[in-house]
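2 proteins. here.
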Amino acid sequence: MANSPNTRIATYNVNGLRSAISKGFIEWLSAAGPDMICLQELKSQEDQLDLELFRAIGYESYLFPATKKGYSGVGILSKRKPVRVVKGLGHDLFDFEGRSIRLDFEDFSVISTYFPSGTTGDVRQDVKMEFLDFYQKYIDQLKQEQPNLVICGDFNICHSAIDIHNPVSNAKSSGFLPEERAWMESFFNSGFIDTYRHLNTEPHNYTWWSFRAGSRDKNLGWRIDYVCISEQLNSKLKRSVILPDARHSDHCPVMVDLEL
């Protein structure tokens, strides 16, 4: 996009970066050509990846893997050089799990965050709720220093009934619990825009599908992956799309164009 004034930013939970690469992720990324792409669930250490694959198509890799191998981890691939790279949130457990990385540019910052899942039981659900509380405080403080934020990631929460194919039967499912949805509402009310929903009000648009029972082909999904922007960037938002045809993961990418 060298001739465009827009900055194109994508987010993608790749559910294992090496697995995604084996399914054509590099070729897809080269063709899609975002200025940067925020990745979640790397499930890879840096020494397990050939970073030259990304350099060959114009991207530098900024990665923050989990300490535990084969688990979690986030990263940002960027064609633009940041002025600062911040790995982690300053919280022992969440940094051990490789939950967030931030690239600071001159007049905006881009964050890739992988929110915990609570689907394995009460202990992890408690961790998830602790993360939500901590993350809101982290963002509130960060916003004082850098008001122009682009927060990308797998939030592991559907905000509204329109964001899930079966809201009634999932009313008590982690990812669609009332307290999780209330947190999302509070997060947006704290000064952020859900870019996709801001520009698209149609139902049946999802970013994650279970591997079970042909869910993806039937489009029985959840919209849990977001690109959120500070309210003051609203006038800069030109486009936000979900790309369900990208099939390197059980998630698909979300991509935005911003005049940054």
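next one coming up
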Amino acid sequence: MSAFLQRERYGAVLMVRMNSPETRNALTTPEQFQELVDLCAELRQDHSVKAVVLTGNGKAFCSGGNIKDMQNREGIFAGSPYELHNNYRHGIQKIPLALYELDVPIIAAVNGAAIGAGLDLACMCDIRIASNTALFAESFVKLGIIPGDGGAWLLPRIIGIPKASIMAFTGDAIDAQKALEWGLVEQLCSEDELEAQALEMAQRIAKNPGHALRMCKRLLREGQHMRLDSLLELSAAYQALAHHTQDHAEAVDAFVEKREPNFKGQ
């Protein structure tokens, strides 16, 4: 079986493409889940990568679960309620946990439809930009099921409870312009420009010291559920570490000397 994820390096930026255009990049097999989990594990160890862009090959970003497998109760949708419960826990639910723990900034470049688990996958990323032909749907209810991969936690934190409720309760799709208005995406561009725009944003991020990026992302994550005093204590600890890095000293020197910094990841 060929790899679901294609990778390309652009300096400190990694471009990752879901490559199953014949299924509209459906995310529905244990092998696909594991590829995403393994990618996150690798990136946590590879400090040469400072930013990631995730997109899809073909006309869709990700169409979610395979409806035919649902109909036939095959694959991850097979078995008793107990078995299905574990299929989710030990299958697709590993992805939001892996991406949540990933301390490398990741941009979703939504090139087409992001439906069901595909929308939730985009929401697992830190930043979303989209082509002006993209569609977004939290469509589980239309199939008589619920968001099983974290969408009920992720989507309200991005667009708020009322708008997330509309998407989750109706299952209806919204277009790219509505997604921009609702804050689901931060930027729209043409299909032809999407990857270039995503890479440009990723490269702007990757110009900064890697240690600061990773600690900053961790603080943003922890801040979603910590008290202010606890977050301030963690921030003070991270800041003490940051002040004693060579890249911090280089950044300060470059600023004072009005030149471009030369970071070495130290």
